[in-house]
Write a structure and sequence with these properties.
Layout (H helix, E strand, L loop, with lengths): L1 H9 L18 H8 L9 H14 L21 E4 L10 E5 L13 H4 L5 H18 L7 E3 L4 H19 L1 H23 L5 E5 L3 E2 L2 E2 L3 H21 L3 E5 L8 H6 L4 E3 L6 H8 L4 E6 L1 H6 L2 H15 L5 E5 L9 H14 L3
Parallel strand pairs: 3-4, 4-7, 7-8, 8-9, 9-10
Antiparallel strand pairs: 1-2, 5-6
Helix pairs in contact: 2-3, 5-7, 6-7, 7-8, 12-13
Length: 352
């Protein structure tokens, strides 16, 4: 019933049980083995990893699966590398590679994304999205599946320039940096046009626009250069009748209304964004996914975990489009017993 519950929630039809999703839990291999009995790890063949993850989606009753196709691949010709902290099991994703192709922040002002990066044939992009969506449906046949874009706008600029260059450019000339954002948006539009024509009825749009402390540049800059571009990028998706599920890490409470005005159908949020505000203002018109705090699963007691799940359920239960999730991943260092207890409490409380 997980697909039916997930699809009902996305369409604001109040399923009898709260649906759920999670992030990274399907690659917490010790947890996956405990739940499914299938032993896999970061060194296992991809086929075995996929078998184990698929069994986990089913066992934990995913009603929705977060997925995007377009990460930083289209930017590989020219992008900054900022290293990567350990996240995956055994630090498999750890990287000390740090490199920026730009020597001066003012170089940013002349950057032309459409000249540097490829413009792809429309049908090729549509085919890529369709193939990714079909793959996700095979891996999680009992969930609502998606395909989508990670580097929507701010995340794309960060991938290209890195934090140091981008922040210095904003400090030197925020308007010129805004004009760059406009040029980037014009280039990335091709992917949104293709996403509008793909088979997926639900699409994922990701853009990390804030820090945990909130906006990293004046809110007026976002309202001049980010959200107007969102409206242009999302327009073909809305015209095609897609359900648009938006994600930003950090604390974007200040911009919830702006994002809603851009035409999204749902919000994915970390624990620092105010889910109660979203529930009160948009709980009858939008779906939302979140937002238990992973730090409580990492370090909390059973009582702490119970209270956190209950907090989320108490906010979301009255809203037809609420999905439960740990709002910033269940990484591999989460104690297995805590993750299992989190799931046990959710199962106890999820019925409406």
């Amino acid at each position: 019933m997980s697909y039916q519950e997930g699809w009902a929630a996305i369409n604001l039809e109040m399923p009898d049980k709260i649906p759920r999703t999670e992030y990274s839990a399907d690659r917490h291999w010790k947890l996956v083995e405990k739940v499914t009995g299938i032993a896999a790890n970061e060194s296992s063949p991809i086929s075995l990893q996929q078998q184990a993850s698929s069994a986990f989606y089913k066992a934990w009753d995913y009603g929705f699966k977060w997925n995007v196709l377009i990460h930083n691949q289209p930017l590989e010709k020219c992008r900054t590398k900022m290293g990567h902290a350990s996240f995956a099991e055994d630090g498999a994703d750890y990287s000390t590679e740090v490199f920026c192709p730009f020597d001066d922040p003012e170089d940013i002002f002349d950057f032309q994304p459409a000249e540097v990066y490829n413009v792809q044939p429309h049908q090729k992009l549509v085919q890529d999205f369709n193939e990714d969506y079909a793959k996700q449906c095979r891996l999680a046949p009992d969930a609502v599946n998606t395909t989508g874009i990670y580097i929507t706008l701010v995340s794309g600029l960060l991938e290209i320039f890195g934090w140091d260059m981008l922040l210095m450019a904003l400090g030197i000339d925020a308007e010129e940096t805004g004009h760059l954002a406009n040029r980037y948006s014009e280039w990335i539009q091709q992917y949104f046009n293709a996403l509008a024509d793909c088979d997926a009825r639900v699409v994922k749009i990701h853009d990390d626009i804030v820090w945990t402390s909130g906006p990293f540049v004046s809110p007026e800059w976002y309202r001049k250069y980010v959200f107007p571009n969102y409206k242009k990028l999302f327009a073909p998706l809305r015209e095609a009748g897609k359900k648009i599920i938006y994600t930003s890490d950090g604390t974007y409470t200040q911009f919830v209304d702006d994002i809603a005005e851009c035409g999204v159908n749902g919000f994915v949020l970390e624990p620092t964004t105010d889910m109660e505000y979203i529930a009160e203002k948009y709980g009858k018109t939008h779906c939302f996914i979140g937002n238990a705090d992973t730090r409580i699963l990492l370090n909390g007691s059973k009582d702490d975990i119970f209270r956190e799940v209950k907090r989320c359920v108490d906010i979301g239960k009255k809203c037809p489009g609420f999905f439960m999730a740990v709002g910033n991943h269940i990484p591999a260092n989460t104690p297995v017993e805590n993750a299992l207890y989190y799931n046990e409490v959710f199962e106890q409380l999820r019925s409406r």
